[in-house]
Amino acid sequence: MKVFDNKHIKNVAFVGTHRAGKTTLSETMLFEAGLINRRGTVEQQNTISDYHEFEHQRGASVFATPLHTEWRNYKINIIDTPGLDDFIGEIMSSIRVADTIVMVINAKHGADIGTEIIWNYVDKYHKPTLFVINKIDSEKANFEMSSNSLKELVGKNAVLIQYPIKLDGAQCIIDVLKMKCYKFRPEGGKPEKLPIPDDQMEYATMLHNELVEKAAENDEELMEHFFDRGTLTEEELRKGIKLGMLNHDFFPVFCVSALKDMGSGRLMGFIDNVAPAASDLKPEQTLEGELIKPELNDDTSIFVFKNVYQPNLGQITFFKVMSGEVNVNDKLFNTRTGESETLNQLFIMDGKKKHSVQKLTVGDIGATTKLKYTETNDTLAKKAEAGTFKPIKYPQPRLVKAVFAKSSTEEEKLSEALKRIHSQDLTVDLSYNNETHQTLVGTQGELHLSTLNWLLENIYDVEARFEAPKISYRETITRSATANYRHKKQSGGSGQFGQVHLKIEPYYEGVPEPEGFSIRGKEEVDLPWDGKLIFYNCIVGGVIDQRYLPSIMKGIIEVMGSGPLTKSFIRDIRVMVYDGKMHQVDSNDISFKIAGAHAFREAFLNANPKLLEPIEQMELRVPEQMVGNVMTELQSRRAVIQGIETEAHYQILRCTIPTAELSDFSSQLRSITQGRATYSSNFEGYKAVPGHIHKELVKQQELVTT
């Protein structure tokens, strides 16, 4: 295949809401360029990008799919992304390596809620962006509403390049950059170029002047030309638009009918001639602070943005060449692991079809197979000590479930499958809770979870079940208590004997030393599950030998590892061992361990024990008109609102909320805000469980025990 230089490679990510027509537009662009001789459709399940069986079942994109087309001596790499934010990981990885974002809008709905959600991610990356209003020929299309909704979303920087009209019953597009009218046959394809109709000239001229003025704002020299001549040449317009796109303050707006192949050729021409290439973008800064320029004569470096497992091919690694060029059989070093990888094959991928190439140059996107040590977000470079490109930062999981194999004999198989799925999709979060002994899987929502389950069953041949995860409670006390226990066992020969008297009290930072005891020793234990045990030796007169004290403490810690209320860990207690008895023959370590454990358990139950629950610190970004509903929902979940700040048309809410209240929170939040609110949370600490919940949890444990 032909090798293109970095000025003639354009990488675009098609993003936009569900049913906007991204896949159809991708298919049409490949057809228009002659790379395929027949266009597939989503309904017929024969498009290049939606090739996965699960996508056929859903009738929509689930995975981001790289493909390419060629147009007038330019190569356009397209990444067709899903339209639902359950699959935001696929969208974010595509945005990361794209040079230009093409945001596709459904002309029947305009910039709707789904568009806003995805735009918020696009905006954070500050990438050059253009908008395409699709389905302009639909009976329910409303271009004016759609363009106005775009301006509400991104402001006055959304600038019309085109708008649709009907002329003699035919679909036409007025282009105010070229000041032409494109008239299409009913079946679409190559249009007839016409002068702008007289009744449209005034409006088209007004839009053209707005375009010229906006383009001139991006460069002092262009502004001077504009003041001198009152206009700009087409070449100057292109320059001004590109500079504005690079500054992320100029968003060209096009219109097409992807299904009827109307306007796709003009869109590709604009991507070729105006949209930024990799060589136009700022140098990439590595984690070490080094700037890597996208230049051919620099050392080779590539960034891995995606991994896909296909049963017939194994793992396919997708990457972007960030500098230099990569050739077949090149040996590159993984800057994270230091391991070397040999790229035995290079491909350009069009959906599931792979095309072998001998080399890929800077700015291009390609794939390879059979890498041993390389994962998503890794950097491969000519030198092991080269800089590492900044990784994609994926959002926290919004839905967490405990996962089990339906058959206990397949737990290991399930574990391996989950690890492989995680390596392909880093928004699938995997962890193991040592307290509850549960494997936890985090996803972006119910649909993301159902996709995970489908992959387990159909690709990895393992059935799983999902449950709400157990909550890691803690137990502690609220007052002091004393207890003593005598352990005596006689079974012929040497027996067992140990008696322990102790007092327990709540512990907190800064608590004064206990009064009324002769303190002979103190040991402070940082418990593995957080919290402390403070152990005092207050023995007087040698009634218990010093050598038995570690055994007493061991018995106490054993009880603290499985509390009497709910089998949860106990924390933040101090114990004073002040009396007891021993026997010269029968006393031993095990006797005092048992005595210490029983005495501690009895004292604990007499010290008004309470349950503590984990609390999350949460930050929510909520549309201002929806704050009331969200606050009501939060308060119903025992959240404590700590503060509210304003950010554009959003409110930033900060609160604390019990972890136990979060099992279905993401789904409910999505429902009441139509998916527009987002949140992040981090573990903050433990707080006392309300009395009625305390009673219910203890009762549940009693039922389990009996």
Structural class: alpha+beta
Morphology: elongated
Report low-confidence residues grouped into runs of 5 or more.
none
Helix content: 25-40%
Largest sheet: 7 strands, mixed
User: Based on the structure, what is the oligomeric state of the protein chains?
Assistant: single chain
Q: What's the count of strands? A: 38
Contiguous helical run count:
16
Strand content: 25-35%
From the N-terminal CA to the C-terminal CA, the straight-line distance is 72 Å
Rg value = 33 Å
**Strand arrangement, largest sheet?**
2-3-1-4-5-11-6
Roughly what is the average pLDDT, rounded to an integer? Answer: 93
Annotation keywords:
seven-stranded mixed sheet; alpha+beta; 27% helix; 706 residues; single chain
Structural write-up:
By secondary structure, this protein is α+β, with helices and mostly antiparallel strands. It has a 7-stranded mixed sheet, with helices on both faces. Strands 18-17-23-14-15-22 form a 6-stranded antiparallel sheet. Strands 28, 33, 35, 36, 37 and 38 form a 6-stranded mixed sheet that branches. The chain starts with 8 loop residues before the first strand and ends with a helix.
